[in-house]
Amino acid sequence: MTHGRHSGRVALVTGASRGIGAASARLLASRGMRVVVNYLNNESAANEVVASIRSAGGEAMAVQADVRDAGAVAGMVEQVRAAMGEVEVLVHNALVPFAVTSFEQMSWQELGTKLEEEMRAAFVVTKAVAPGMTAGGYGRIVFMSTGTSRQPREGMIALGTSKAALNQFARYVAQEMGPRGITVNVVAASPVDETSIADVLGDPHRKRQAAQTVLGRMAKPDDVARAVAFYAGEDSGFITGAIAGVNGGGAWD
């Protein structure tokens, strides 16, 4: 395992049992971070990620918590503190479920629930780690967003609207946290292959998505993880409040 400037930082990755979260957890661990693999339901998948990190010589632990639940998140951060120390890097990747439907067919409950739960999770997790980062004078916060927060796509109004709110929340937190040595950035990916969303969308959508990129393929979890690792590490120290489009050159605006 290569240590270096990243050595020993404690990184919490929410929703890390599969997809982008798992890829990010493995990459951060390979760069010397001590990684917390948060999961909601899939304990065996989270344990597999931890096992793969350990077998590669890294340090990791799995912790169950619903990131929408402030008490559960506080308990998770406490557990991490006892085992590894303060969380210095937060990658908030956990996906809050959402309805895929048109505005015409959508109920307020479907839109309102996604908005409320998306923002509550981001708020709760950030609140939980901010005091430790502030005390240490160092922090890296990376929020996972989506291209649909800028570029509307059919059926994605709940996801796109809630992630647009997340993007702006990140900018405000970045402004407030900057003087404390904490950076806050957003990685906004186009639809990613080998994830739960890709499974829902199916093959025709995959092909269409690949055709819409300059690079001619869909993103893979590792493509997104590399951008996450950049914002989670030392190389991005003078970047905050940024939104990185990991979209293969697919147009947004």
* CATH homology superfamily name: NAD(P)-binding Rossmann-like Domain
| Shape summary | globular
Number of strands: 7
Largest sheet descriptor: 7 strands, parallel
Which class do the helix and strand fractions yield?
alpha/beta
What count of structural domains? Answer: 1
Low-pLDDT residue spans: 1-6
Counting DSSP H or I runs of 4 or more residues, the number of helices is 8
The CATH top-level class label: Alpha Beta
Instruction: Identify the strand order in the major beta sheet.
Output: 3-2-1-4-5-6-7
Q: How much of the residues is beta strand, in percent?
A: 15-25%
CATH architecture: 3-Layer(aba) Sandwich
> Could you tell me how far the N terminus lies from the C terminus, measured between alpha carbons in angstroms?
41 Å
Query: Mean of the pLDDT scores?
Result: 93
The CATH topology is Rossmann fold
What is the string of SSEs from the N terminus onward? EHEHEHEHEHEHHHE
Report helical residue fraction: 40-55%
Roughly how many Å is the radius of gyration?
A: 17 Å
Compact description:
With 253 residues, the chain is of the alpha/beta class. It has helices spanning 19-30, 43-55, 70-83, 108-136, 157-177, 196-201, 203-211, 221-232, and strands spanning 10-14, 34-39, 59-64, 89-92, 139-146, 182-189, 243-246.
